[in-house]
Task: structure prediction
Amino acid sequence: MYKVYKIKDKETGECYIGHTNNMSKRMSSHRCNSKTSSRDIMARNNYDLDILEYDIPDKQTALQRERHFYDITDNVINKNRPIATRQETIEKNRETTRQGYYRKHEYFKEKKRKYKEENKETLKLKRSQIDLCECGSYITHGHISTHRKKPIHFKLLSQKKYCEMMKIWSELLRV
Ligand SMILES: [Zn+2]
Result:
């Protein structure tokens, strides 16, 4: 037979709801297992143990009863909600992922802003610096990526290539 129980911290009022078919074994695992959510309550060692329901015939019913008490009790510290439905689990995961994406996005946005702020002068200087484009034009660094998309760049580039080709041909013919 299963029981549903509550461990309540007398000082903080934090509650842990659990179920078991072997109370003494379960309590010793609460004391020894550092992974359970009840760890802090057990460590403070100032708690009440209440049996909320006795004589539950099977584990599935015990879980359902545990869920019921989990829902109606304030200040529950269980990490996992008992028998979370598939939908609840999906929603919880989705929320965690969404928060993760948002944090990442904010982090990179802030990093970029900081970099810009700290390197304001260098970036300004770099933008006004004159670069030689492969088409033969002299363009300020800040405009070169725009220039590289313009027809004039492609026109000059093909002319330059044509000239280079002619130079190679004329040298070949001379030999
Ligand atoms: Zn160019």
Q: What stands out?
A: Residues 84-118 form one domain.
